Structure formats: structure tokens, C-alpha cells
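Hi all, posting the design record for the shared folder.

TITLE: backbone redesign
STEP: 1 of 1
STRUCTURE INPUT:
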């Protein structure tokens, strides 16, 4: 079995004490690639260091936490993304998107939408796929993406209605990655059931969204998501593993994998 963790945060300080062991444990369970998504400038530089040390295993996605309202920092991260994309060191823009769980005011939400569009344009300019965060804003994120016409999209840990997810699949060809929390979340089980295998990936979102609420998650837990999806869809673990692996290869154009 070979697996791609389509979304995690290896640069998170939760891994500062044992990052190397965490990566090695993942490799032992069949996780051959981990896409680490940074959330600010400092995180991007730290994630870059990890990706450089683990070339062909850890891949860098550069994004920005939508709850941080800081134009100068956004500009700096976009500039960094351009420089690194030119050198072929970035596989995606993300995670970026909308967070209506933490951000409640209409004014701040409309600034998020405007910035999200800027990130979509940057991804398009750089020819990179997008990894989208859409907490409590699934419907709005899908609407913005369809309106902008961007179709190289991974919706990560989507928490919206399955109807909106299916609209993303049918009209945009979006991919959806199911996190390890699928083992305990009814909403994620529903999502795993309706999204076609051709549009599925798996993720851990480490250090969060683990099989056990509140406990640190790590990429080595990824097979738990694959097993849960296989049982929900009535498929074999190998079928889910191989399809999600191929989908990740296709969207992110990963190189040097087994
Ligand atoms: Zn994340």
C-alpha cells in the first residue's frame, strides 16, 4: 500500500520535539508522500526547510490562515510563493480560503472573500493547484471557486453540506480529501460515501483532526482513514489506497514517488 497524506502541518510546533520520528513512522505505514501546508510566512520558511531535507517525501504547499487579517503579511507570503514556485519548490497554493467559524462580521468575511480571490489568481498565474480551507463556509467557498472558474482544487476537510460538495465535483471537478477524523465524524462519513472515488484523497491535517478527539494526530494514522472509507464505500483498502494515491499524483504532479 502506498499513500499520500494530501494535507498536514509538519511544521507545526507540536512536532518540534520528534519531527524526524513522526516522518519515519509515516513512511513505515506506507505513507510515501506528505503535503505540508503552511499558514504564515514563518511557517512557510520552516516547512520549506523540512521539504528540502525530505525531498521526494515532504512537499510544500504555501498558504495563509484566512483568520489572520494582515495585508502586509499576505503580500510577503505571496512574494515568497512566487519565488519558490519559480524554483519548482512548491506543489500547491494552500491552504487558503474562508473561515466563517472564527470570523463572524460581514465586513471581515467580505475581506476574506476578496483575499481568497487573490490567492486563486496567484495559483492560476503560477499554474498550481489550490488547497482550500472552508470551515463553516463550504457553500461560499464552492461558489467563489466556481465563479472564478478554477478547477485544480482540493477541498480539504470539507465540513459543509454534501449537496455543495457534489456541486463542486460535478461543476468544478474538485477533489475532496477525507481526514482521519472520519472514524468518529458522521459528517465526514457522509462525505466519504457520496464523493466518487475519482475525486477522493485522504489527509490527516496533523496535528489536528485525528482519530481521537484532542489527541495529537500524525501522518502515520492515515491508513485509518483509508480503512474507514473502504468500509463505507464497500471497496477494498487497496482500491481506496491506489485511487487516492493516483488522484494526488495527478492533481499535484508529484515527482520522484515510488
Ligand atoms: Zn490544515
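Okay, here is what came back for every position:
SEQUENCE:
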Amino acid at each position: 500500500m502506498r499513500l499520500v497524506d494530501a494535507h498536514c502541518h509538519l511544521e507545526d510546533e507540536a512536532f518540534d520535539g520528534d519531527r524526524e520520528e513522526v516522518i519515519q513512522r509515516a513512511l513505515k505505514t506506507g505513507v510515501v508522500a506528505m503535503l505540508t501546508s503552511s499558514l504564515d510566512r514563518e511557517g512557510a520558511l520552516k516547512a520549506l526547510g523540512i521539504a528540502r531535507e525530505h525531498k521526494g517525501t515532504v512537499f510544500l504547499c504555501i498558504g495563509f490562515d484566512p483568520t489572520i487579517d494582515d495585508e502586509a503579511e499576505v503580500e510577503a507570503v505571496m512574494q515568497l510563493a512566487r519565488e519558490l514556485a519559480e524554483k519548482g519548490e512548491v506543489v500547491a497554493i494552500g491552504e487558503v480560503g474562508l473561515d466563517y467559524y472564527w470570523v463572524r462580521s460581514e465586513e471581515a468575511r467580505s475581506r476574506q472573500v476578496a483575499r481568497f480571490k487573490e490567492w486563486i489568481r496567484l495559483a492560476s498565474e503560477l499554474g498550481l493547484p489550490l488547497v482550500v480551507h472552508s470551515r463553516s463556509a463550504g457553500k461560499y467557498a464552492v461558489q467563489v471557486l466556481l465563479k472564478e472558474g478554477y478547477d485544480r482544487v482540493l477541498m480539504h476537510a470539507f465540513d459543509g453540506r454534501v449537496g455543495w460538495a457534489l456541486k463542486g465535483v460535478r461543476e468544478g471537478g474538485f477533489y475532496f480529501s477525507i481526514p482521519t477524523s472520519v472514524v468518529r465524524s458522521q459528517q465526514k462519513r457522509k462525505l466519504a460515501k457520496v464523493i466518487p472515488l475519482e475525486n477522493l484523497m485522504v489527509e490527516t491535517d496533523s496535528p489536528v483532526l485525528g482519530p481521537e478527539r484532542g489527541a495529537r494526530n500524525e501522518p502515520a494514522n492515515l491508513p485509518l482513514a483509508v480503512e474507514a472509507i473502504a468500509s463505507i464505500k464497500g471497496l477494498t483498502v487497496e482500491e481506496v489506497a491506489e485511487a487516492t494515491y493516483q488522484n494526488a499524483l495527478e492533481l499535484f504532479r508529484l515527482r520522484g514517488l515510488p
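COMMENT: Residues 7, 9, 37, 95, 205 surround zinc ion (CB under 6 Å).
Let me know if anyone wants the other runs.
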